[in-house]
């Protein structure tokens, strides 16, 4: 767990980096927060008023009020500040300023704000080893750092001990990312993925199965396939697709195109475009136990295109 003194140090550093706090015309935390958010309103081309904390020009007038509100322990204000400095929509999930963002999320979380906790976890998940800026560039570039990893895992372990699934999963990801499969520390990834999987995280069951495949140790037996099936049953499209791949190619299981088609159909139904495309090819050419069917091939090809178009449109709105 990150000590409270350290959290406070991080927070005070963030306040200093953000500039002096003025906002002398607000009376308490709630008033400062309201006045800050009221200054985040922008007007679109149609004349509609919207709250937009991501517009630098708009946020500039709100920042001092939100900083004051956060200093006075208004959790939502801390979360909004973390959002502004953190991962913003439309920037490809790149972090604007980790060093400024994380202290506000940590303070929000310490104030028992669920959004603040989850966003701190998400930030550490995405950049747990990369909170330190590179010194030899004018760009905002973050580099891998041991102290970043230590801070991240300390917070995440504390949250994981409270059965926060996302924190357990983030720990699994960090250990799998920083260590090689042959290193003993890599196995920590399986411990945390397993806990999140036991808490019914389909993505953690999937990642645990992938990790077992990667380790490929003799004592894992058929665990990876069982885990893929569990994740698939929880509607994880990647797990369903991976099972299909194993049965199609006869990897670690006996080749069985009919079983593969069953899992491909599940994955396709869960909007996995490659699964739909693979089904289209199977019905186009046929396989052992599967007859050619031009109509079915076209149906799955169309489904794949519809999913890809929807994903493309969704990405445009990020």
Could you describe the 3D structure shown?
With 318 residues, the protein is mainly α. 65% of the residues lie in helices and 3% in strands. The strands form two sheets. It has a two-stranded antiparallel ribbon. Helix 6 (114-127) runs parallel beside helix 8 (165-178). The radius of gyration is 24 Å and the shape is globular.
Helix/strand layout:
Blueprint (H helix, E strand, L loop, with lengths): L3 H15 L10 H10 L2 E3 L5 E3 L4 H16 L3 H11 L12 H13 L3 H14 L4 E2 L8 E2 L2 H16 L3 H14 L9 H11 L3 H14 L7 H11 L3 H13 L7 H13 L3 H13 L8 H23 L2
Antiparallel strand pairs: 1-2, 3-4
The assigned structural class equals mainly alpha
Radius of gyration (CA) equals 24 Å
> What order do the strands of the largest sheet run in, or round the barrel if closed?
1-2
The number of E-state strands comes to 4
Largest sheet: 2 strands, antiparallel
Q: What does the overall shape look like?
A: globular
Strand percentage: under 5%
Proportion of residues in helical segments: 55-70%
| Helix-strand string | HHEEHHHHEEHHHHHHHHH
H/I helix tally: 15
Could you tell me the mean pLDDT? 86
Question: Which structural traits does this protein have?
Answer:
single chain; 318 residues; mainly alpha; 15 helices; 4 strands; globular
Offer a quick outline of the entry.
With 318 residues, the protein is mainly alpha-helical.
């Amino acid at each position: 767990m990150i000590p409270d003194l350290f959290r406070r140090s991080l927070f005070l550093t963030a306040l200093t980096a953000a500039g002096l706090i003025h906002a002398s015309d607000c009376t308490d935390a709630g008033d400062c927060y309201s006045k800050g958010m009221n200054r985040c309103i922008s007007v679109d081309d149609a004349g509609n008023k919207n709250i937009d904390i991501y517009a630098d020009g708009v946020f500039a007038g709100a920042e001092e009020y939100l900083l004051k509100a956060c200093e006075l322990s208004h959790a939502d204000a801390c979360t909004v500040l973390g959002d502004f400095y953190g991962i913003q929509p439309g920037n490809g999930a790149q972090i604007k300023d980790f060093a400024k963002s994380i202290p506000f999320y940590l303070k929000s979380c310490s104030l028992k704000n669920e959004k603040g906790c989850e966003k701190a976890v998400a930030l550490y998940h995405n950049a747990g080893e990369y909170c330190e800026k590179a010194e030899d560039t004018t760009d905002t570039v973050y580099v891998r750092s041991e102290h970043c990893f230590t801070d991240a895992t300390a917070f995440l372990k504390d949250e994981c001990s409270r059965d926060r699934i996302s924190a357990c999963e983030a720990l699994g990801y960090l250990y799998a990312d920083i260590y090689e499969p042959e290193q003993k520390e890599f196995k920590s990834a399986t411990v945390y993925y397993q806990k999140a999987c036991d808490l019914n995280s389909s993505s953690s069951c999937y990642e645990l199965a992938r990790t077992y495949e990667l380790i490929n140790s003799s004592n894992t037996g058929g665990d990876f396939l069982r885990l893929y099936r569990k994740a698939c049953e929880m509607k994880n499209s990647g797990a369903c697709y991976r099972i299909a791949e194993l049965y199609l190619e006869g990897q670690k299981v006996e080749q069985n195109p009919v079983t593969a088609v069953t899992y491909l159909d599940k994955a396709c139904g869960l909007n996995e475009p490659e699964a739909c495309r693979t089904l289209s090819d199977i019905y186009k050419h046929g396989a052992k136990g599967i007859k050619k069917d031009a109509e079915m091939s076209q149906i799955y090809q169309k489904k794949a295109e519809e999913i890809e178009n929807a994903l493309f449109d969704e990405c445009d709105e990020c």
